[in-house]
Specification:
heterodimer, A: 95 residues, mainly alpha, Histone, subunit A, two-stranded antiparallel ribbon, flat, B: 480 residues, alpha/beta, eleven-stranded mixed sheet, 15 helices, 39% helix, transferase (chain A), Asp/Glu-ADT_sf_sub_c (chain A), ATP binding (chain A)
Chain lengths: 95, 480
């Protein structure tokens, strides 16, 4: 089993990864092998089984809507690759 | 024995008796790092000056009457995906190569308050994805017991550091075995707590429904002491459990009389090395001699655990790792076009295994595949959890190998991702079910590689794990 190059490219685009040709070939092959192994799950009868969305029984977790200190702007921007004033700077989005 | 090789509770006694100072303890560990880390590669960042400064400060406070708590002044190594304010948190990834944490993780706050000393940040598989600590952009970590072999992973740096005397205790994280398997390979103790027992605030997320932080230590007593510090409810982690935390040292009893230990037959198949299986049989015999009741049990859905895990973990990872876009933090590749900026940033920033898992996770969540893969995996997960629930109606804990083999050779499995995944076959089901489990040393094979014994208990019964593990340790003195 092998994932076709076109599909690899589609998935890579969804995942925002710019793969090179060698990676497309290799990942296509390796993902195929892994998915083939995963087909094992088809042996398992899961009809009527309630999926385990969470492994522990938690309901919606609410907290009080209180104003608290947040990370200072200076700290929040400290790791940014590019900033301008109080903002993160990115390439132009709107023409 | 050298200071750097003592357990934390032993150092604690020396500190109490004023036979050593915190500065001396920290210097002993830093000297050891200087001597051996070029060969082992346990650390990404060594906090040398910071640790010495902190040691001096704590010594001064002690001389002014500060109470010496069980882990005060103890050098601790932290896996490099847990945030310490002002220090780098790289996750062993190029994309976070230059990221400095703006805040402390909750577990770090707790350790800081107790006066432990952060000796450094340890190497790991990139974003905790791997079983050998070979997927790090900073190079591999080697097993201190045999440098030709891997230390296990993904918390390989933390386990190697504790085994080599480069730290006294350490924190790791376990998503599919990442604490227990490296602890087993390096001959130390590792515990993955029940899902929800330890806050993950400040832990970089890989697969949120599976990740847990836990201790890696030289013996079971240190494990209990570290558990005493890190457990507890935290409103900043919405999956945190509001449960009472016992004093885990109360569970350090050399007594397994009437304890019912189940032996899951699916964990003793032909993939298990004969020497590993033999070590398990000897452990069972020991427990039996000390009054435990040993019986076989079946966990029929075990064989579906790896397939289930690699669907759920990769799906969650593909979503969690979407945040690395080169905007707010991390390394950015230049482009005038924002889409291209994202793509080039992520292509250059992530290593092979991370890309592979993001691709797989994206694939299984993409249109048309959700029910075939993701929903099916969640149903399988429910069945795997139900197997354990049934077993725990009858048993206090389960005994199994941590891994089918001992530490494998460096490079042995790097070309075959599926083969690497299969080495986690006995640790993954525990994470899928959200259970606590401990890995303790139980001997060596004929080549001198360490063998790890795994004990698994029902949710929030870490006390049973510690009691059974402590009994084993006391009657074998196998740790360290």
């Amino acid at each position: 089993m092998k994932i076709e190059k076109k599909e690899v490219e589609h998935i890579a685009r969804l995942a925002r990864l710019k793969l090179n040709e060698e990676e497309k070939e290799r990942f296509g092959r390796q993902l195929g092998q892994i998915l083939k192994y995963i087909e094992k799950l088809n042996e398992l009868n899961t009809e009527g089984v309630e999926p385990a969305l969470h492994i522990v029984p938690l309901q919606n977790i609410m907290r009080k809507d209180e104003v608290k200190d947040s990370l200072p702007v200076k700290d929040a921007l400290a790791n940014a690759p590019a900033t301008k004033g109080k903002y993160f700077k990115v390439p132009r989005i709107i023409e | 024995m050298e200071l750097a090789e003592l357990a934390a509770h032993e150092i604690h006694c020396l500190l109490k008796k004023k036979e050593v100072s915190v500065v001396e303890v920290v210097d002993a560990v830093l000297t050891r790092i200087d001597e051996v880390d070029d060969n082992i590669g346990a650390f990404i960042t060594v906090n040398g000056e910071g640790a010495q400064r902190e040691a001096l400060r704590i010594d001064q406070e002690i001389s002014r009457g500060r109470e010496i708590l069980p882990l005060t002044g103890i050098p601790v190594a932290i896996k490099d995906l847990i945030c310490i304010k002002g220090m780098k948190t790289t996750c062993a990834s190029r994309i976070l190569n230059n990221f400095y944490s703006p805040y402390d993780a909750t577990v770090i706050e707790k350790l800081r308050e107790a006066g432990t000393i952060f000796i450094g940040k340890t190497n790991m598989d990139e974003f905790a994805m791997g079983s050998s600590t070979e997927n790090s952009c900073f190079g591999i970590t080697r097993n201190p017991l045999n440098p030709d072999t891997v230390p296990g992973g993904s918390s390989g740096g933390s386990a190697a550091a504790v085994a080599a005397g480069e730290a006294i205790i350490a924190l790791g994280s376990d998503t599919g075995g990442s604490i227990r398997q490296p602890a087993a390979f390096c001959g130390v103790v590792g515990l993955v707590p029940t899902y929800g027992l330890v806050s993950r605030f400040g832990l970089v997320a890989f697969a949120s429904s599976l990740d847990q932080i836990g201790p890696i230590t030289r013996d079971v007593r240190d494990c209990a002491l570290l558990m005493n510090l890190i457990c507890g409810y935290d409103p900043r982690d919405s999956t945190s459990a509001a449960t009472n935390i016992p004093d885990y040292t109360d569970s350090l009893l050399n007594d397994v009389r009437e304890v019912k230990i189940g032996i899951p037959k699916q964990y003793f198949g032909e993939e298990v090395d004969e020497e590993v299986a033999e070590a398990m049989r000897e452990a069972m015999a020991l427990f039996k001699r000390h009054g435990a009741k040993i019986e076989n049990v079946s966990l029929p859905n075990t064989e579906y655990a790896i397939a289930t895990y690699y669907l759920i973990a990769t799906a969650e990872a593909s979503s969690n790792l979407a945040r690395y876009d080169g905007v707010g933090y991390g390394q950015r590749e230049k482009s005038d076009n924002i889409l291209e900026m994202y793509e080039k940033t992520r292509e250059a920033g992530f290593g092979d295994e991370v890309k592979r898992r993001i691709m797989l996770g994206t694939y299984v969540l993409s249109a048309g595949y959700y029910e075939t893969y993701y929903l099916k995996a969640q149903q399988a997960r429910a069945l795997i959890r139900d197997d354990f629930e049934k077993a725990f109606q009858k048993f206090d804990c389960l005994l199994a190998p941590v891994s089918p083999t001992t530490a494998f050779k460096v490079g042995e499995k790097t070309d075959d991702p599926l083969k690497m995944y299969l080495s986690d076959i006995f640790t993954i089901p525990v994470n899928l079910a959200g259970l606590p489990a401990i890995s303790i040393p139980c001997g060596f094979n004929s080549l001198g590689s360490a063998i790890g014994l795994q004990l698994i208990a029902k949710p929030f019964n870490e006390e049973m794990l510690l009691r059974v593990a402590y009994t084993f340790e006391e009657n074998t003195k196998m740790s360290r």
